[in-house]
Every structure is written in structure tokens, then in C-alpha cells.
Amino acid sequence: MSFTIAIDGPAASGKGTLARRLAAHYGFRHLDTGLTYRAVAKAMLDAGLPLDDEAAAVEAARSFDISEMRRDVLAEHGIGEAASRIAVMPVVRRVLVERQREFSRTGAGTVLDGRDIGTVVCPDAPVKLFVTASPEVRARRRYHEILGNGGKAEEQAILADIIRRDDRDANRADSPMRPARDAHLLDTTEMTIEAAFRAAKTIVDAALEKNS
Ligand code: CDP
Ligand code: CDP
């Protein structure tokens, strides 16, 4: 059976960076589930379809290739916003969650990061982390990330977008973003990437020990 590390948290909390570090360290496969919602959003935008066209969104959710998803292609701010609108539709979530679960069952170990991994996708995962940071710090991180990639951005606009997206993700009826009851909370507001990795590693090592 696959050992799954479930990581959830809001935008730019550092969950993706942490998931990649843990996957590399333990030799586990990693799935950034945010990309699955982004892939559907991009397919809809590219086809010029309204984002609330449920039948088209379900079809897109069934048909994209998970192994072809690339964050650099799907990173755009507008796609993140569109993804969070796609993500309120239960019929679309059902299809994507099933594909994510399938991924979580393959190989010796997996790391999945998103919003509902510990609560819905993998509720039996032996390790659950909920990563947070203040909205201001998260907006600053995203801002520097965009500038670092040669893009242009305005920090206040990013902050407004992050707050709006957090609100939509935390208050939707189906699978709202929230820590699972048995999740470890990791507030990275004042933490470096390295410190967050070390804190998470201690938790994972203890769970692996218990599982062996
Ligand atoms: O996946 P998520 O949107 O939660 O965030 P991320 O892409 O892992 O991190 C967003 C940005 O914050 C990246 O540029 C990270 O390098 C940076 N970061 C940081 O500066 N300090 C941390 N403790 C975590 C992430
Ligand atoms: O990287 P960032 O945190 O900005 O966003 P993301 O992880 O790529 O997710 C984009 C959007 O997809 C989120 O705002 C959520 O609305 C949705 N999502 C979700 O509902 N459930 C997940 N497991 C992952 C993402």
C-alpha cells in the first residue's frame, strides 16, 4: 500500500515547495492537485467556453493528461482565479478527486498537495499537514516569484486576489479548504523553506517509524 503525505493550505503558503522537497527526499511521487483544476480552467478558457458550463468542464476534467501538466504553462494569475471558480462545481470535483485518488494509490509513496487532500481525497493518509502564512507574506512571496520569472505585478493586487480566492475556497459548500481534524498545522509566516522542510520531516519520520 502507498504511504501518502497529504498537504493542504491556501495560495502561496509554501505547500508546493514543501511537497516537492519531501517527495525528493523520500523518493515519493508528487501530485500538485491545484494543477488539475488549473488544467480544466485553461481548457475552458482556450475553447472560449463560459466557466460555469458544467458539462464541458466535466468533459475537460476527464480528458486532460495528468502527466503532461506543467506549472509554468498553468501558472498565470488569471488561470488560478478561473480554477477556483471551476473548483466550486461538485460534478467536476468528483471526476478530479477520483483521478487524484488513483494517483495516490500508485507506487511506494506519494505526496499530494491542494485544499482538500487530508479531508476528502486521502482522509486515511498517515501524515497530514496544513500549511499557512499571513496573507501579506503570501502576497509578497507570490510577488517576488512573478518578478523572479521576469513578469510584472502589483503587490496590492496580488493580496486582493489571494484574499478573494481564500474566501471562495474556504466557504464553498463542497470540500471547503480547512485543516483535517488530525492535521499538523505549519505556520510558515516567519519560516524559511528549509525550516518548514525540517519541521515536516520530523513529523513524516515519526509516522514512517510507526508504520514500519
Ligand atoms: O504551493 P503554494 O502556492 O502554497 O506555494 P509555493 O509555490 O510553494 O510558494 C510560493 C512562493 O513562496 C515560492 O516562490 C516559494 O519559494 C516561496 N516560499 C518562501 O519564500 N518561504 C517559505 N517558507 C515557503 C515558500
Ligand atoms: O498555487 P496556488 O495555491 O495559487 O493555487 P493552486 O493550488 O494551483 O489551486 C488553484 C485553485 O484550485 C485553488 O484556488 C482552489 O480553488 C482549487 N483547488 C481545489 O479546490 N482543490 C484542490 N485540491 C486544489 C486546488
TrEMBL record:
Record has ATP-binding as a keyword: yes
Enzyme class, UniProt record, top EC level: transferase
Assigned protein family: Belongs to the cytidylate kinase family. Type 1 subfamily.
Residues annotated for ATP binding in this entry: G9, P10, A11, A12, S13, G14, K15, G16, T17
Compartments it resides in: Cytoplasm
Lineage per the UniProt record: Bacteria, Pseudomonadati, Pseudomonadota, Alphaproteobacteria, Hyphomicrobiales
HAMAP family from the UniProt entry: Cytidyl_kinase_type1
The protein's Enzyme Commission number: 2.7.4.25
Domain annotation Cytidylate kinase: ranges: 5-195
Protein name (database record): Cytidylate kinase
Gene Ontology cellular-component terms listed: cytoplasm
Pfam families: Cytidylate_kin
UniProt keyword terms in alphabetical order: ATP-binding, Cytoplasm, Kinase, Nucleotide-binding, Transferase
Catalytic activity: dCMP + ATP = dCDP + ADP; CMP + ATP = CDP + ADP
